[in-house]
Write a structure and sequence with these properties.
218 residues; alpha/beta; four-stranded parallel β-sheet; globular
């Protein structure tokens, strides 16, 4: 399909901003099979696009967990996603992962490879990650959330919540619970580029009522 610049940047462009190769539409990277990223989600790092892949830590295919990130997310430099391959067993006297090194250290007891697994890490749409944020394994971050700079996210983040700190806590919410649910029902991030372009004044500077009316009118 031919891209029409009247309706925003080309979602298939690796670097959507001319002259700024530090900004990358992540979906166009050569992503591993266990990573999925939606259109228009970008990573901004002077180290370049490879830095995003390097910041997905302990993500071993044999673990089976996935990192799933929605559309229109903004991910600042230094954001890290820690996956389940970094978890260690804590049921015995030592947490050292002896069997991963093979040789005579493997096969010593039946449950040795039964490392903790909290499941997939799932990020919604329109989420903003501040610089240096860290996300622990197996969490859900809701649509429209904001993760403050240097936050360490250790528990699920509700839609349209702002979290900060280590461990990150909800500082405030961007919308009421009712309006957050309305925004998720509107799901503007799934609209066609032409429709999103027409609705940008409402998406960026309007209110939920206006956007809901636009959603009804098509």
């Amino acid at each position: 399909m031919t891209h029409d610049p009247r309706f925003g940047p080309n979602p298939r462009a690796l670097h959507p901003m001319t002259g700024h190769e530090r900004v990358t539409f992540i979906a166009n990277l050569d992503l591993p099979e266990n990573v999925s990223v939606g259109d228009y989600t970008y990573y901004d790092d002077p180290a370049g696009p490879r830095a995003f892949l390097d910041a997905i830590l302990y993500h071993f295919p044999f673990i089976g967990d996935r990192l799933v990130i929605g559309r229109f997310c903004a991910i600042a430099a230094g954001t890290r996603f820690l996956m389940n391959g970094g978890n260690h067993r804590m049921t015995g006297p030592s947490t050292y992962p002896f069997p991963i090194f093979g040789g005579g250290w493997i096969g010593r007891f039946p449950e040795e490879m039964d490392f903790p697994n909290r499941g997939d890490t799932v990020v919604g749409n329109d989420v903003w990650f501040g610089m240096g944020a860290t996300v622990m394994p197996g969490l859900r971050i809701g649509d429209g959330a904001v993760i403050a700079t240097l936050s360490v996210v250790t528990q699920d983040v509700p839609p349209y919540a702002i979290v900060a700190g280590n461990p990150a806590r909800v500082v405030r919410t961007r919308l009421s619970e009712t309006d957050a649910a309305r925004m998720q029902a509107i799901a503007w991030w799934d609209w066609a580029p032409e429709r999103i372009t027409r609705a940008i004044p409402a998406i960026s500077g309007g209110d939920v009522d206006t956007l809901e009316a636009m959603a009804r009118d098509g």
